[in-house]
Amino acid sequence: MYVAWIGVIIIISYQSLTNFVEEQQRFGLIFEALVRVDMEEERYETLKELGSGNFGVARLAKDKKTEELVAIKYIERGKKIDANVQREIVNHRSLRHPNIIRFKEVFLTQTHLAIVLEYAAGGELFDRICNAGRLSEDEARFFFQQLISGVSYCHSMQICHRDLKLENTLLDGNPAPRLKICDFGFSKSALLHSQPKSTVGTPAYIAPEVLSRKEYDGKIADVWSCGVTLYVMLVGAYPFEDPEDPKNFRKSIGRIMSVQYAIPDYVRVSKECRHLISSIFVANPAKRITMSEIKQHLWFRKNLPREIIEAERRGYEETQKDQPSQSVEEIMQIIEEARTKIQTSEQTSTGPSNVVRGGEANEEVDDHFAKYLVLE
């Protein structure tokens, strides 16, 4: 009888000790995380909110060490840290080019994963076109040359963007703005993945082969999206929307598949530019102009900036010198930790709440436009 009671006491004591140790370990992890949060939060001074979307909130901040302005993108910890977020961070980290927003680092707050990026003071190219109505051919070429330089570099790094559009091209604050490609949430690395077949992106910019729901070459699909961007800069409207019924997505998809577009008579565009656009808008991706052929096109090479010529000649080797301080392994560890919310008795939000701005975030076309796809 006494032996049995002693056994019960030992078991209870052991369980109590185990629970105590687990509680101490959990407290230690929380304390360690909070210390890291405090260290990172102290480094950046938040200045203002830049925007919001399904991803969360972006804020302008200042690095107190360097006085550099940065954009910090906050994504709520937990289920929002999905494969798209991981892909965006890992693929973006590997890119170093003057026409691509610079990835700097990631860190955790108590409630959010924070992605620190180069700040582009000039805003979206989309807003510039909205304000101007449309751009002159020379100005459109100036931005298109930079876009192609950045996308071509991505392709040389075996990364296709898959969501190229005006809203994902930012401008710096210089008088002659430098274009900066951003948002790699739908990007895909040929080194890590097979050929894409998912229908992702923004409908107005999507190539016909992407809508067909078969395997496709993401690089060739990016060429089509670059062509849509060029057209919108020149015309101030989307090429495959029905002017009489622009919100009819069924019609838009039909016009994309049949490559039904026109340049209005009131828009003055040179023959060389028209030739380039018609070479891009080809339904068969095997017959579409390639990125290297675009860079040799007569219209593209006119007034080509010296820095682009030099970068092409050097093969971008200088862009690889300034690598991010965080290794892929360290970043993956942070991402994995961000998938779990830290539970504290008095949880304070060091990051902003997840405010959604409707209609602006990217969504998979399979989800958002499935009812409009009438493909055979």
Automatic annotation (TrEMBL):
Keyword match Kinase: yes
Gene Ontology biological process terms, A to Z: abscisic acid-activated signaling pathway; response to salt stress; response to water deprivation
EC number(s) per entry: 2.7.11.1
InterPro entries listed in its UniProt record: Kinase-like_dom_sf, Prot_kinase_dom, Protein_kinase_ATP_BS, Ser/Thr_kinase_AS
Biased composition (Polar residues): 342-353
Region (Disordered): 342-362
Protein's recorded name: non-specific serine/threonine protein kinase
